[in-house]
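Lab notebook, bench 4. The sequencing result for the construct came back, and we need a structural model before the next group meeting so we can plan mutations. Quick request posted to the team channel:

Model the 3D structure of this chain.
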Amino acid sequence: MSPYLLAAAIILGTLVVFFTLPWTLPRAQYRTLFYPGGRPRTFTRRLNSAQAWLTARGIFPPLLVALETSGRRSGKPFLVQLVVAQVGGERYLVSMLGENADWVRNARASAGAAVLRHRITENVKLVEMPASERAPILKAYLQVAPGGRPHFDVSLDAPLAEFEKVAARYPVFRIAPD
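Done. Here's the predicted structure in token form:
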């Protein structure tokens, strides 16, 4: 086997293992490894930034979007990759990291003004959903967001009542036209 082919196989194998960690690692270990204390490590932030940049250019599937908000303190653009959940013909964004995610704070500070990017640019208004309406959206989100699963202490196939118990911890925003 040529050294280049071997190197390519090793790189590909490493990427497969890395990107399947949300499915293979226990929740607590995944959170400790990538999001200790509910905040991303430096490596995770850089990886997330790279993924958001690629998503904005349309490299990843359409269920992923790059959300751009203005920094609440700096005013600079802040780009993050998110999964869009669709329920009843509406599109929603869910914060897998809960209330303290920067994009959630930025969206609230800007009264919901944001930009979605995925090959095209779409000015939107993010409308926060009350906790009482979040359960079906959270369930739909976990169906399409494998990277979000380790952050929820609810099984993928749990009844809606289980999602209602944790709904207050995870902000959900409906995507409305600007």
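Residues 3-19 form the longest helix (17 residues).
Will bring this to the meeting.
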